[in-house]
Amino acid sequence: MLLAGDVGGTKTLLGLYTQGQGRPVPVEICRYRTLDFESLVDVVAEFLGKVNQAGAIEAACFGVAGPVLDQVARLTNVPWRVEATAVAERFSIPHVRLINDLVAMGYSVEALTENEIEVLQAGEPVASGDGGLIAPGTGFGQALLHRVNGRFVPSASEGGHADFAARTAREIELLATLTEQFGRVEYDQVLSGPGLANIHRFVHGAESCEGVPLDADASKVPALISTAALKRRCDRCVETLEMFVSALGAEAGNHGLRSLATAGVYLGGGIPPKILPALRTAMFLNAFQAKAPMDALVKKMPIFVILEHHSALLGAAVAAEQMTDSLDGSHCSGVLVNGT
Question: What CATH number was assigned to the domain covering residues 2-107+310-327?
């Protein structure tokens, strides 16, 4: 039995899995509001009590929204200090590992089926090549996918907090506006749900918007903007989404260059599946490919959208399964064993 978790700033997903052919098989998955609990240990206790798990859990892996150092993480938007040893000791799980949430998502990539990905650019994939992963959602995450012994091994990155690079006159205006507001502008403030809202405020100024009521819940605003744009109910929402898609395409291409992603660039997170019609446009691809003198290289890179909405949880389960594989000598990977 495997325990997997996807711990985010808004929600936490926990799942029990068994080992399967090709990928772990879910037994039970539950969703919780992260801030309803004081710690990860508390959420896990609630979950295991609910599912009444009687058998031993052989390994556990948790993807967390923040950097992981020495198997300890302080979540970016949650006042938690998460320690692998605390989970291992509290629930007598012999093998526990913490990884960044984008690393967890990265572990899912090769377990996804054809129905769980959308191809934006077929390219000319190199089977032995590396890959890249970016994920706009509540925040903007990135990970590198290194090819090691024939499979992807994800590597953590905090590239979403790198400085936003404006490319056009309109983006320079956006950058100036956000600089006044934040002092320093990072990709997380542009290519995320809150980032889409930031662009929306910049485009609309003080004027009202047909698609977004003034009293709209902040958590609902990004979806309202994209819906109004895709249905073309508001010209300024259309411009907002176009700016977002163009900037996303440019940074996806940047990430492809950084990771030399000849095996493909993957777009995960909650936003891409919801704006697929906009991503299928020339605006996204043109921004992705505009990398002279490396444009010929990026045109050969496949681009995929991950449609599986539990991909980070699945990836955490894959990582847990690989921990058990490493114990019987099937694989060699760096894992946390017995909390050390």
Answer: 3.30.420.40
**Cβ atoms of residues 93 and 37 within 8 Å:** no
Question: Strands of 25-33's sheet, edge to edge?
Answer: 25-33, 11-18, 2-7, 59-64, 95-100
The tokens 């990709």 sit on which residue? 187
Express each pLDDT in 184-239 by its tens digit.
Answer: 999 999 999 999 999 999 999 878 888 888 888 888 999 999 999 999 999 999 99
| Domain boundaries along the sequence of the chain | 2-107+310-327, 114-307
> Is 114-307 a CATH 1.10.10.10 domain?
no
Q: H-type helices in 205-333, by residue range?
A: 221-230, 235-259, 276-279, 282-289, 295-299, 311-327
Q: Are 39 and 21 contacting, i.e. CB atoms less than 8 angstroms apart?
A: no
| Claim: this prediction has a pTM higher than 0.70 | yes
| Contact in structure between 164 and 186 (CB atoms under 8 Å) | yes
